[in-house]
Specification:
Layout: E1 20-22, E2 25-37, E3 46-51, E4 57-63, E5 68-74, E6 102-105, E7 136-139, E8 146-152, H1 158-164, E9 167-173, H2 175-179, E10 188-198, E11 204-205, E12 229-232, E13 235-236, E14 239-242, E15 246-253, E16 260-264, E17 270-275, E18 278-286, E19 289-291, E20 296-302, E21 310-315, E22 333-339, E23 368-378, E24 384-388, E25 406-413, E26 419-423, E27 428-435, H3 438-444, E28 466-469, E29 473-480, E30 486-492, H4 495-498, E31 503-508
Parallel strand pairs: 2-5, 4-9, 10-15, 14-22, 23-25
Antiparallel strand pairs: 1-2, 2-3, 5-7, 6-8, 8-9, 10-11, 10-12, 12-13, 15-20, 16-19, 16-21, 17-18, 17-20, 21-22, 23-24, 25-29, 26-28, 26-30, 27-29, 30-31
The protein binds copper (II) ion.
Residues 386, 419, 492, 494, 497, 502 line the site of copper (II) ion (CU).
Length: 510
């Protein structure tokens, strides 16, 4: 299927209006439904799932510290839109096929409102998972100003629910950020990057079997999903008309498996101002930005001197990353900016020299060090799957940090893939990465480093909630477990991995 590039304008999700709002209480309702939507003008309308009849869902915009309550409502059909594998954890025949639970990615929130994968619920809450506690979630929004996103997190079918369209943006703002005079309002635009493949009739394609099919199964989970087209905010290869001025773009990788290495074909620098967890200390000028699934980067693009030009945002990351297929003429293209709108007012926004302090967590402050492996496994059907610390989802909890304590986690990647590791509840800092001898580790269980310490990339020097643990490297992260006790998860954010055992519960204890 050959879809014309830059045929459709970039949609920008609307800001969701609360049903009630007063000084100490904001209340939203968000309903999940199935509907048809145009994802490209040359395609028939596609049946998707979305929040408030939109894919992506509407953007939820809150003030730092605002007390927000959201009732998440499942109004989806009983039958899944995409092929379900009933052999993976939590998706067996003993549970309803369509289940949902919503996680605000990056939020620091009480565990009962975090969207625990077994806190799922069906239409009308008629059936619920064993950790479901309530239909109305509470968010205290203590985070720094940042670009978060909400998405489905149901055990065993997250990959299908998000692929079907269940994702949206969630911004936290505050006054200090406003005073920085960054590009704002219509010049502050979120970009949700995904990849999908379509059937000729316009419907979503998701594989029923891996490349090497499992003959005894009708439907099997795949080890990764790599789509043939790139979508931004739910449109295939869109364009955006812009003024010759500065824009703030909030880039999010919401793909199942695909990494994006983002560049502009104008070769202009991207001024990155924020990571997953909000503003960096200083803007950094970079040529490209690598985003693993679930990672965010906010950038200022300056189109000031480019009136009349068309600029293409490109992708250069092989898929799966880093050892997979190089991009082709389609997957190398993300979207186009057309600098063709007249300047409506003088651009007084700035790229500030200083953004906000970034206090580094000190290694000496850590009271606990954990050594956690990322493992390759083979199941009884001959399928490859991955584990964290050699343990399946149902194994007893082993990560039990104490509230208020600081820990360092050594993510010891024994596999050939990069895995974006995400922790719920807290933001962490990346300390470093280092090559090690995998053979020796497998035999003797000792880390023998074979390379020098690699500091974080420039673009990673800020608060993170998701980090790439690269193959045959030890990636070290440091974090403080603050604010809440309770049951959370940490997992790989490649959705095909998290759905098949690359996820673990953890519990913050008092
Ligand atoms: Cu993974």
């Amino acid at each position: 299927m050959n879809l014309t590039k830059f045929a459709d304008e970039l949609p920008i999700p609307a800001i969701l209006s609360p049903l009630q709002k007063n000084r100490n209480y904001t209340y939203y309702e968000v309903k999940m439904t199935e509907f048809k939507q145009s994802l490209h003008s040359e395609l028939n309308d596609t049946t998707v799932w979305g929040y408030e009849n939109g894919y992506p869902g509407p953007t939820i915009e809150v003030e730092q510290g605002e007390k927000v309550f959201i009732k998440w409502i499942n109004d989806l059909p009983d039958k899944h839109l995409l092929p379900v594998d009933y052999t993976v954890h939590g998706a067996h025949r003993d549970v309803p096929e369509v289940r949902t639970v919503v996680h605000v990615h990056g939020a620091c929130v009480e565990w009962e409102s975090d969207g625990y994968p077994e806190a799922w619920f069906t239409k009308g809450y008629l059936q619920v998972g064993r950790y479901f506690r309530k239909p109305v979630y509470q968010y205290d929004n203590g985070n720094r100003p940042s670009t978060l996103w909400y998405h489905d997190h149901t055990l065993g079918i997250t990959r299908l629910n998000i692929y079907a369209g269940l994702a949206g943006f969630y911004f936290i703002r505050n006054q200090q950020e406003r005073l920085l005079n960054l590009p704002c309002e219509k010049y502050d635009i979120p970009l949700m990057l995904q990849d999908k493949t379509f059937n000729p009739d316009g419907s979503l394609y998701y594989p029923r079997q891996p490349d090497k099919p499992v003959s005894e199964m009708e439907t099997s989970i795949v080890p990764e999903f790599i789509g043939e087209t790139i979508l931004v905010n739910g449109k295939v290869w869109p364009y955006l008309k812009v003024e010759p001025r500065k824009y703030r773009f909030r880039l999010l990788n919401a793909a199942n498996t695909r990494f994006f290495r983002i560049t502009l074909d104008s070769d202009q620098p991207l001024y990155q101002i924020a990571t997953d967890g909000g503003l960096m200390e200083h803007p950094i000028g970079v040529k490209d930005i690598l985003l693993a699934p679930a990672e965010r980067a906010e950038c200022i693009f300056d189109f000031s001197n480019l009136y009349g030009k068309n600029i293409i945002m490109k992708n250069g990351a092989p898929a799966p990353y880093p050892g997979g297929e190089p991009v082709n003429e389609n997957t190398s293209i993300i979207m186009q900016f057309r600098v063709m709108l007249p300047l409506t007012s003088i651009d007084t926004s700035v790229i500030p020299a200083y953004l906000q302090p970034y206090p580094k967590l000190k290694e000496q402050s850590a009271s606990k060090i954990r050594f956690l492996t990322l493992n390759d496994m083979m199941d009884s059907f001959g399928r490859e799957y991955m584990l964290l610390n050699n343990k399946s989802w149902d194994a007893p909890i082993t990560e039990t940090p104490t509230l208020g304590s600081t820990e360092i986690w050594y993510l010891i990647n024994l596999t050939d893939d990069s895995h974006p590791i995400h922790l719920h509840l807290i933001d962490f800092q990346l300390l470093d990465r280092r090559n090690f001898d995998v053979e020796k580790f497998n035999q003797e269980k000792i880390i023998h480093y074979t390379g020098a310490v690699q500091p974080p990339e420039l673009q990673e020097q800020g608060w993170k909630d998701t980090v790439s643990a690269n193959p045959k490297q030890v990636t070290r992260i440091i974090m403080k477990f603050h604010s809440y006790t309770g049951l959370y998860v940490w997992h790989c954010h490649i959705l095909e991995h998290e759905d098949y055992e690359m996820m673990r519960p953890y519990i913050v204890i008092r």
